[in-house]
Amino acid sequence: MSITLDRVVVTAPTLDGDVTILQETTLELTEASVALVGPNGSGKSTLARLVNGLVNPAEGSVVVDGIDVVADGRAARRHVGFVFTDPSAQLVMPTVLEDVMLSLRRSHRDKKARRAAALDVLAEHGLDALADRSVHTLSGGQRQRVALAGVLACRPSVVVADEPTTLLDLPNARAVSDLLLGLEQQLVVCTHDLDLAARCERGLVVLEGRVVFDGTGAEAVAHYRASV
Ligand SMILES: Nc1ncnc2c1ncn2[C@@H]1O[C@H](COP(=O)(O)OP(=O)(O)OP(=O)(O)O)[C@@H](O)[C@H]1O
């Protein structure tokens, strides 16, 4: 597992011209879990979104497990699963089963096989009892776990999660954190949940568009706490 950012700069257009929202950044991420912490607007999401091509660099390159994210965005998106803060952004079908089936539409063309595979995915995540439920009747925790199951159904090699526990209560935040940290996939997570960040193998503190601290998750949390 390896994510390489080589002299990456990200800019965004404004009425006064382009502004730099991520200063030149070079990073090699090989740990199983990497947390990005920092204040609102510091650039965490921008950094995380580079990994699956949701954000393109103005300069530099992003390579994920040998895939050049800019040159081959489609391959990168297949390789990198993205978990949003609000699972409602991801759950678009009437039922849980149909939603996971939607995630499998590329890998399983045949509807019967797709349904069977989706049921397997739900069982794998202990969510089979929810298969026929409307996604609107799920609790926030259930919804985030179903969204995560949909992402993992595509068998990505990397999971990027943007504040996946922010909307959850403490027990659900812990359950989703346990799940994310137990993944076989490499995890990159932007988070204000400092318990989750402290449990990550590596932690980066992002401030005003630059990485200002790089250490273990626990060290990054200590640095961030001391700086505010
Ligand atoms: N498309 C864009 N156009 C203009 N400015 C942008 C754009 N995307 C991000 N920004 C700005 O870049 C900065 C970094 O944003 P980013 O979302 O990466 O921060 P963040 O650390 O994830 O914040 P939060 O914790 O609030 O989610 C912010 O000031 C934001 O307003």
UniProtKB/TrEMBL annotation:
It comes from the Bacteria. InterPro entries: AAA+_ATPase (IPR003593), ABC_transporter-like_ATP-bd (IPR003439), ABC_transporter-like_CS (IPR017871), ABC_transpr_CbiO/EcfA_su (IPR015856), ECF_ABC_transporter_ATP-bd (IPR050095), P-loop_NTPase (IPR027417). One of its GO terms (molecular function) is ATP binding. Residues 3-228 form the ABC transporter domain. Pfam families: ABC_tran. The keyword ATP-binding applies. Keywords: ATP-binding, Nucleotide-binding, Transport. It comes from Nocardioides yefusunii. SUPFAM superfamilies: P-loop containing nucleoside triphosphate hydrolases (SSF52540). The keyword Ribonucleoprotein does not apply. Belongs to the ABC transporter superfamily. This is Energy-coupling factor ABC transporter ATP-binding protein. Gene3D superfamilies: P-loop containing nucleotide triphosphate hydrolases. Transmembrane segments: none annotated.
